[in-house]
Each structure stands twice: as C-alpha cells, then as structure tokens.
Design goal:
The protein has about 140 residues and is an alpha+beta fold. The protein has 2 helices and 7 strands.
Amino acid sequence: MIVLSGKVLDLGKGIRFPKLFSRSTGGVAIQEGIEKVNQSIADILNTRKGERVLNPEYGSDLPYMVFELNDPATEDVLSISILRDLAYWEPRINILDISVSSTDAETDRNIMNVKITYEIRGTNIKESYIYPVRTQPRDL
C-alpha cells in the first residue's frame, strides 16, 4: 500500500507468482503495490496472444520473437510491441520510456534487456522494470 499526500493509493493485492508460501503465516505469499504492478507487466509480456482461451487477445507478441535476430530492427519492433500491449492491458501505468539494449558477448549475446520506465497514473511515482528477451545473436 502506498500513501501519497495523505491518501492511500491501492495498486492491487494478490497471490505472488510463481506461487510461494509465507514462512511467517504458512499461507500463500501475497504481493501488493509496485511489486504487483511489475508482476502484471511480466504476466502480460510472458503470455502469448491466444494462450488464454476466454481472453485470446490478452498478452503480447514477445514470446513469438524468440528466434528473431538481435539487431536494431528487432529492438524497434520490441519497443513498439511492448508499448502497445502495456498501454492496452495495464491501466495503472503510463509508459514514459522503453529502451532496449543488447548484452555483451561475454554475458549472453542472445539476450536483449528491455527497460520499461513508467509512472503510476494520477501520481508522480516513477518506476522502472527490466525485462530480458531471448533472441538469436546477430553474428550467426
């Protein structure tokens, strides 16, 4: 729960995914606030469109980009896709910036890190979330 100018800002509360159990209560672990927003972003980006039977439009095209080349054109497609999907499915945030960077060859050439900078709507709270996207190396 976030308190802003004396008002409580409710960003949601729910079961943590992957499902974990709380050591203190023995029950299912709960997450809320910014952590819940970040979980929602990950859920949207990890879900393939068509995967949810009762809501086939939910999700993103990112899971289909696994074998795309790690190049500037793919970076642009990733940015546009993420902006479109999060703007539609995550009403609690305004996207401020999406930057895509490739990891260096020593780490893993097949990963592009997407940094999503967002603002909670109706507030001045800015957060960022880094989402790794697996691709093909550009020097195949």
